[in-house]
Amino acid sequence: MFTRFQTLVSGLKVLKRSYTTYDHVQKILRNLPLVWRPKVTAIEESQNLKNMSLEILISNHRSHEMILNAVKTQLLDIEEESSADGQEEEMGEDEFALFTKFQQWARFNKKNF
């Protein structure tokens, strides 16, 4: 995302259109998805955007993205564990049903002998 943004900014510089760092920061924050809205609000309230460099914003973005990815992988691991447990329970029920059928068959055959 940032490389594309930098490419666009450098293209604008070639056209003799320059924007301040504040404008760049505002454009990036404004175009983040809605999932990022709480983080954007926190950045806007906690730091002076006019003095914020683009590198600081990018590092904040990447660290937050890493945290989100870590949480996502933890949730996926938990989901996989729970689905694996569910499969074991289903197999246990199938085995139990087979066991009860075998017991009934054994009782029936015992009476015949």
List keywords for this structure.
113 residues, mainly alpha, rod-shaped, aminoacyl-tRNA ligase activity, aminoacyl-trna synthetase
Describe it:
With 113 residues, this protein is an all-alpha fold. It has one domain. The protein is built from four helices and no strands. The longest helix has 59 residues. The model has no long low-confidence stretch (mean pLDDT 78).
What is the domain total for the residues? 1
Fraction of residues in helices?
over 70%
Spans of at least 5 consecutive residues whose pLDDT stays below 50 are: none
Oligomer: single chain
Number of helices: 4
GO molecular function, one term: aminoacyl-tRNA ligase activity
Organism: Trifolium pratense (Red clover)
Protein name: Aspartyl-tRNA synthetase
Keywords: Aminoacyl-tRNA synthetase, Ligase
Question: Which helices and strands, and how do they pair?
Answer:
Elements: H1 2-14, H2 21-30, H3 37-46, H4 54-112
Protein name: Aspartyl-tRNA synthetase
Keywords: Aminoacyl-tRNA synthetase, Ligase
Organism: Trifolium pratense
Concise structural overview:
One of its GO terms (molecular function) is aminoacyl-tRNA ligase activity. The protein has helices at 2-14, 21-30, 37-46, 54-112.
